[in-house]
Amino acid sequence: MTPPADSSLSPETIRAHLNTRELGATLSVHDEVDSTNHILADLARAGASHGTVVVAESQTAGRGRLGRPWISPRGVNLYASILLTTAQASSAITWIPLLTAVAAVRAITTLAGLSLRVKWPNDVLVPRDGEERKLAGILVEAISGGQTGAKAVVVGIGINVNMPAEAFPEGLRPSATSLLIETGHSVARAPLLAALLEEMERLHNQLRDHGADGIAAAYQSLCDTLGKQVRIELAGNDPIEGTAEGLAPDGALRLRTREGKILEIRAGDIVHLR
Q1: For the segment 139-163, what is each residue's pLDDT rounded down to a tens digit?
Q2: 157 and 104 Cβ atoms separated by less than 8 Å
Q3: Which residues in the chain land under pLDDT 50?
Q4: Contacts of 160 (CB under 8 A, 6+ apart)
Q5: How open is the CA angle 11-15-17, to the nearest 5 degrees?
Q6: Looking at the whole model, is its pTM more than 0.85?
Q7: Domain-by-domain residue ranges, the chain?
Q8: How far is CA 213 from CA 15, 95, 122, 208, in A?
Q9: Are 134 and 185 in contact (CB under 8 A)?
Q10: DSSP assignment string, the chain
């Protein structure tokens, strides 16, 4: 399956679809970078403003959660990072990874009409044939320095848009997918990014003005992890198995172990067990 050509991304093509007040007001598009998160983190430390967005046509060192590489071929997918700076409490900041997953699901659903789910904390999945295939990944990193008195996070997101099945490494083909594969046609990336930024701005303002309750409800309605038997693989420790019972007030995953103990998990690799 070969994708039809999608127009190159540029500030002009993105802004033609964008209807935000802050996110994307400062916007740069690069042909190739090592990582959009890396570029934006440097800008943040130099004083970049809230809502600054960095986009790239390709990445040479794209990263996912837990330090995994993110395959980033040129011109077919969406690689973007968004700077959020705020004086909010840390308890609100911890919801940003989950908020971003909700925004991504809503944006993709609007543009492509797919039924999507989320694996905690923020993997965007397409359920198909009894399997879960990853469509998008999110990496949120806290930034030190920058605007005085503000907390800053860089939100990186990679969405597999027009990537044909044969372009994925063979080992990823059973577990990864793209909008092209799922819909059978190409999807324009500029309106997809615009829709994502609009959803993120709306949800971030909701978090700022009204707290996390609404975000939590929206997230829980999309999260396939809750209620399931799961295995959590922790760096440097033995895996833990149990039931994902719900979310803590800061968005951590509440796990009831097989011994009946309740743990709050804030980092780890989740495997849904059958």
Answers
A1: 999 887 555 456 789 999 999 999 9
A2: yes
A3: 1-4, 148
A4: 77, 134, 135, 136, 176, 177, 178, 179
A5: 135
A6: yes
A7: 11-221, 226-272
A8: 31, 10, 18, 11
A9: no
A10: --PPP-PPP-HHHHHTT---SSTTSSEEEEEEES-HHHHHHHHHHTTPPTT-EEEEEEESS-B-GGG-B----TTTSEEEEEEEEE---HHHHTTHHHHHHHHHHHHHHHHH----EEETTTEEEEEETTEEEEEEEEEEEEE-SSSTT-EEEEEEEEE--S--GGGS-GGGTTTB--HHHHHSS---HHHHHHHHHHHHHHHHHHHHHH-SHHHHHHHHHHBSSTTSEEEEE-TTS--EEEEEEEE-TTSPEEEEETTS-EEEESS-EEEE--
From CA 190, how far away is CA 200, in angstroms rounded?
15
* Fold observed for domain 11-221: BirA Bifunctional Protein; domain 2 (3.30.930)
Question: Which residues have C-beta within 8 Å of that of residue 117, sequence separation ≥ 6?
Answer: 105, 124, 125, 126, 127, 132, 222, 223, 224
8 Å CB contact between 70 and 78: no
CATH architecture of 226-272: Roll (2.30)
The identity of residue 226, as a single letter, is L
Q: Is 140 exposed, middle or buried (0-12, 13-18, 19+ CB in 10 A)?
A: buried
Common-topology check for domains 11-221 and 226-272: no
Q: Which residues contact 18 (CB under 8 A, 6 or more apart)?
A: 24, 194, 197, 198
Nearest to 97 by CA among 255, 251, 270: 251
Q: What is the model's pLDDT at position 123?
A: 95
